[in-house]
Amino acid sequence: MNQNDFIYKTPHVLPDLDTYASEAPSNIALVKYWGKYGEQLPKNTSISYTLEKCKTQTEVILKTKIEADDHFHFEVFLDGEAKPSFKSKINTFLKRIEVYIPFLKSFEFEIHTKNTFPHSSGIASSASGMAALAKCFMAMEASVTPEMTEDFRAHKTSFLARLGSGSACRSTGGKLVVWGKHEVIEGSSSFYGIDYPYEVQDKFRNFKDSILLIDEGQKQVSSSVGHNLMHGHPFAEQRFLQADENITKLKSILATGGFDEFFALVESEALSLHAMMMSSSPYFILMKPNTLEVINRIWEFRQSQGVQVGFTLDAGANVHMLYPEASDEKVKAFIDENLIQFCQGEQVIHDQIQF
Ligand code: PMV
To answer: What distance in angstroms lies between residue 51's CA and the mean position of ligand 1's atoms?
Structure first.
C-alpha cells in the first residue's frame, strides 16, 4: 500500500457529531530512527518495543458542523486545561493529513488529552499523543465506512500517525513494530509500521523497561531539528547503513541469539544516536552527567553480578533499563540502592513489554 491507497474517497460523507476516543502507548526503539526525507519518511529502518503503562488517552469531540473554510477550528486541552501552545504542532499534522481525512474542516471540535506518565518527565509524548489522535480520526472514518477492513484500518492509522511524528507510527498497534522498508523484513514499509513478522524467542517477549527520569527540563534541541541536522551530516550515510545492518543482525538475535548480543546491539544503537547529535553542525548533547553515571553503574553491575540488563536512550537524558523478567528482583533492588539518587525527584517508571 502507498499514499494513494489512503486518500479518502467520499469527502462529502461526514461522521456524526459525537465523541471519538482512543488511547495509544509509548514505544522504545531498539534500532533508532534519526534522519528523514520527503514527507516524514525515514532514512533507515527502525524497530521498537511497545510499552504497556505509558500511554496517552485522547478524545476528539465533534461539537458543531460548519461550512468548511481554509482553517481548522479546534481547541486542545491537556488534563482538562486549555493548551493553546499545542495547537501549532497539531495544525501542521492536520494540514498534512487533510487529503486522507478531509472532513475535519467541516467541524468545530475539541481535542482532550491526558498522559498516564508525567507530562514534564521528558518521556516523548509525541509518539503516543499523535498515535492516539490518529486512532480517533480513524474511528471517525470507520464510522462512515463500514466496509473498511481491519488491515486497511491498521495501516492507515499508522500511516496518519507517522505524519504527526515519525516514531508515532510504531505506537498504533503491535508489540514489536518495524517501520521503514527493509529487504530482510517482508511487508515492511516506509509509509507505516508493521508487526514484526518473524520468530521471537520467549525470553525477548516478556521484557521490562524501567525508565529513570534523569532530567525533566525542556529539551535543548527538538527531535525535528535533530532529524534535519542529519542532512549534510558527515557520518549520516554510514549511520543509515549501520542501522539497516543492525536490523538484519537483530532479526537473527531475536530468533536464536542471547542476551549479550542483544544488549550489545541495543546499547550501541543508543550511543550511535547520541553520537550523531554530538557530531552535528551545530552540535548538541542531550545526555546529562547523571545519564553517564547511570550507564557506567549499569555496566559495572552487569559485569560484577552477571545480571542480564542493558540500557537504551531516547532523544533525551532519561535512561531506559531493559531486562528480562528473570532479572526483575535484582534490577529493582539495584535501582533502589544505587541509581535512584541520580533521578530527578527520585522518579522511576517501571513499565513492561509483553507478547
Ligand atoms: O518521532 P520523532 O520525530 O520524535 O523522532 C524520535 C526519534 C527517536 O526517539 C530518537 C528514535 C526512535 O526511533 O524512536
So the answer is: 15
